[in-house]
Amino acid sequence: MKYPKIRELREAVVSLFTPAYTSKFPAEPHVPFEKFRGKPVVDDANCVGCETCTNVCPPGAITFTDDKEKQIRILRRDYGKCIFCGQCQDHCITGKGVILSDKIYDIAVFDRDKVVEYQEKELVICRNCSAVITTREHLCHMHRKLGPRAFSSILNLNMLNEKLRLSEGQDTEVEIADELKRKDMFNVICPNCLRQVLVKYIVEGA
Ligand code: SF4
Ligand code: SF4
Question: What's the 61 CA to ligand 1 centre distance in angstroms?
């Protein structure tokens, strides 16, 4: 039988009479250190659903799915996977869509679904090929950022026209019949379809 070393014995005795370094969480609330990076908190009013944060999140805690039928984008944030790196905050295009809290850090739960949050954002869909363009709020955010320069993009111009009810003078969406026509350049279509119209009718002069 090996006898314990004197040093180890001394450490064991000392540790019996010194206070614990760890807190008694969850029996007692834990007070985090200053500048502690806590749980990312989403401000839905300032999140435009652009999906940038889904591309920079290292563990893939943020994901999204587009439902073309319902025309909504569902963003899913799983804080059970979050490593509190702050990349989502740093790369948020509005600068206010998600901010790491210095108050909320307790995400220990028995049911992992309880730390998953969802958001829904309205999608803008190409009226010709049904491709997803982006979310409506994302486009509006770009309009606000670009100001008058937004009108250099036909898509932005058409979206704004529709908002102002100038296009066709109606409240309803304008359907695209059969195939793309020159006038569809002024409809809400994706960049690929717009390119087709431009090449067919403007460049080739068909
Ligand atoms: S803090 Fe980091 S890991 Fe957590 S959701 Fe944001 S990007 Fe993902
Ligand atoms: S980057 Fe910002 S605005 Fe875009 S989806 Fe993430 S939180 Fe929302």
Answer: 6
Transcribe 27-50 into DSSP letters. TS---PPTT----EEE-GGG----
pLDDT tier, 178 (very low <50, low <70, confident <90, very high otherwise) = confident
Task: Using pLDDT thresholds of 50, 70 and 90, give the confidence band for residue 164.
Answer: low
- Distance (angstroms) between ligand 2 centre and the Cα of 109 equals 26
Q: The whole model's pTM is what?
A: 0.79
pLDDT for position 53: 97
CA of 141 from ligand 2 middle (Å) equals 11
CA dihedral 81, 87, 89, 92 (to 10 degrees): -110
Report, as an integer, the average pLDDT of 92-103.
94
Instruction: Answer whether CATH 3.30.70.3270 is correct for domain 35-125.
Output: yes
Nearest partner of 44 among 125, 98, 108, judged by Cα: 98
Distance 88 CA to ligand 2 centre (A): 7
Pocket test residue of 44, 51, 52 for ligand 2, highest count of atoms within 8 A of CB? 52
pLDDT at 160: 67
Q: Tell me if 42 CB under 6 Å of ligand 1.
A: no
**Is 90 exceeded by the pLDDT of residue 78?**
yes
92 lines ligand 2 (CB under 6 A): yes
CA 135, 158, 53 angle in degrees (round to 5)?
20
